[in-house]
Design a protein that fits this description.
The chain has four helices and six strands, in the order H-E-E-H-E-H-E-E-E-H. The protein is α+β, with helices and mostly antiparallel strands. The strands form two sheets. The chain has a four-stranded mixed sheet with strand order 3-6-5-4, covered by helices on one side. It has a two-stranded antiparallel ribbon with strand order 1-2. A hairpin with a 3-residue loop joins strand 5 and strand 6. The longest helix is centred in the first third of the chain and has 11 residues, at 21-31. It is globular. The two termini are 22 Å apart. The model has no long low-confidence stretch (mean pLDDT 91).
Length: 155
């Protein structure tokens, strides 16, 4: 068995400017429940909080996939070029909690063809987010039609 090289990237950090900093922190830290990892302040009221969002992935979709996801989750094209998705244990309860905390529900929790329960929300800091709950294990998904890796088609 050959040893895999160490990853070149250690962390994905998404940096978002929020005009209403307090509302964004209250929403993502307090309502969504992202633990505060660190916070810093500087001159001129400069402030930043780094929230732990668990494991990070970068999902790259072509335009057809982006359109298809919008159709499945919302029923129409609504997503901006960048959308942030959070995996949670209970999509229905999390969606209700986030709406109560000020998010605008674009689409309620909807079962997708890939067997997740996804809702779409407009959140503070001008972010459109998806809250999703996986309904199948990774092993169950691996054997399903349409699942694999990009490398699967390389030959």
């Amino acid at each position: 068995m050959t040893e895999q090289p160490a990853p070149a990237v250690r962390q994905l950090r998404l940096v978002v400017e929020a005009a209403d900093y307090e509302a964004a922190v209250a929403f993502f830290r307090d309502a969504l429940g992202l633990p505060e990892h660190a916070a810093f302040s500087g001159e001129g009221d400069a402030r930043v909080v780094i929230l732990d969002a668990g494991r990070a992935t970068l999902e790259i979709a072509n335009p057809a996939q982006k359109r298809m996801i919008d159709e499945v989750e919302v029923g129409r094209q609504v997503a901006p070029r960048i959308r942030v998705a959070f995996e949670v244990d209970d999509a229905r309860a999390t969606t209700a909690r986030l709406v109560a905390a000020g998010a605008n529900e674009i689409a309620p929790p909807t079962r997708t063809p890939w067997q997740s329960l996804n809702s779409r929300l407009d959140a503070p800091a001008d972010l459109q987010i998806t809250v999703f709950q996986e309904l199948r294990t990774p092993e169950e998904r691996t054997g399903a039609d349409g699942f694999g890796t990009g490398r699967d088609s390389d030959g």
